[in-house]
Structures are given as structure tokens and as C-alpha cells.
Design goal:
The chain is of the alpha+beta class. The chain contains 5 helices and 8 strands. The longest helix has 16 residues, at 53-68. This is DUF1697 domain-containing protein.
Length: 181
């Protein structure tokens, strides 16, 4: 059995069909074990003996769409992938805050586009790099100016479309803690 997290795209906790209890219910009905949630933003941990990640993503997304009308995307990572990412310490000495917003943008397995970085990133963004094993772009974003989306985030959306989802580094750490519990 492998421990996984499903990173769900487009979850709005204020939507009555997107509450953690309803999201967990979909996973339980699919037969997964040790189902739990991390925060209220579409991070569902579970255990499965299936290891075909694209098939899991498709199966979960179809169930979310049919049972709750959620059309967003589903991106899955295993505990070993996320543990290795944390252990690599991609943000050494940095602290998550308004001016140093540590982000991890996960790409769906087989996502279209490229893992190469944009040539001229936004001055408010420091691209740390791309971790091929976890299929994730890592960046430090200055979010001290409200209402402005850095060009790097726009580039990610244009390049990879709905095959991505972004989490803060703090959320990734919380997910791993929950997976290891």
C-alpha cells in the first residue's frame, strides 16, 4: 500500500459541494483507505494498493465530477516523492512570508509543455528550479504588492494550462506530516 496525496485544482471551500467531508466521501466510496484532508483547499491524503498514477488521477477526477460536479484537475503525488522533495531542502535558509512566498507548482504526470524555465522571469519572482522527480517548479514570490500576479505564474498557466496546481511550501510540509502520521 502506498500513501498518496491528491492535490485538487479549483477547490473553493465556500462551495457546499467542495467541503472536506464531501471530498473525503468521494475517496472513501472509491475504496481508498486512511482518507484524510489537509487544510480546506483540496489536499486529500489516502492509501491505495494501485500505483498507476495517471489512472488514479483519471478515476478520482471522474468521481469528483460525477458525484460533486467538480471539474477542476487532480494531481497525485506519493509520500516517497514528497519526502524526497522536502529532504532536498530547495529553500535553504528562507522563511515563508509576504515578501518571500515559497511556492511549489506541481505538474500533472505527462503534462504538455516544458520543464525549462522562462527566459525573463518577473522581477518579483526568484525561480529556484524544477525538481524532475516530483515534477514541480519551485519559486520564491514577492507578494507584498496586492492584486498583481507575477509573470512567472502567468507563464506557468499559459505553458501548462489546467495540468498544474500550486501549493505553498508550508502546505507541502503539512501534507507530508499528515502522510507520515
Amino acid at each position: 500500500m502506498t500513501r498518496f496525496v491528491a492535490l485538487l485544482r479549483g477547490i473553493a471551500p465556500s462551495n457546499p459541494n467542495m467541503t472536506n467531508d464531501k471530498l473525503r466521501g468521494v475517496f472513501v466510496r472509491l475504496g481508498f483507505e486512511q482518507v484524510g484532508s489537509v487544510l480546506a483547499s483540496g489536499n486529500i491524503v489516502f492509501q491505495s494498493d494501485e500505483d498507476d498514477v495517471p489512472a488514479l488521477e483519471q478515476r478520482i477526477q471522474q468521481a469528483l465530477s460525477e458525484q460533486l460536479g467538480i471539474a477542476g484537475g487532480t494531481i497525485i503525488r506519493s509520500l516517497p516523492e514528497l519526502r524526497a522533495l522536502l529532504d532536498s531542502d530547495p529553500f535553504p535558509g528562507l522563511t515563508h512570508g509576504r515578501g518571500s512566498y515559497l511556492t511549489a507548482t506541481f505538474l500533472k504526470e505527462g503534462a504538455s509543455g516544458t520543464s525549462s524555465l522562462p527566459e525573463d522571469p518577473d522581477p518579483r519572482t526568484t525561480v529556484v528550479g524544477y525538481d524532475a522527480q516530483a515534477r514541480v517548479f519551485l519559486a520564491v514570490i514577492d507578494n507584498s504588492e496586492p492584486g498583481k500576479t507575477p509573470d512567472f505564474m502567468v507563464w506557468l498557466d499559459k505553458t501548462h494550462g489546467k495540468d498544474i496546481t500550486t501549493r505553498t511550501w508550508l502546505t507541502v510540509q503539512r501534507i507530508v506530516k499528515k502522510l507520515e502520521a
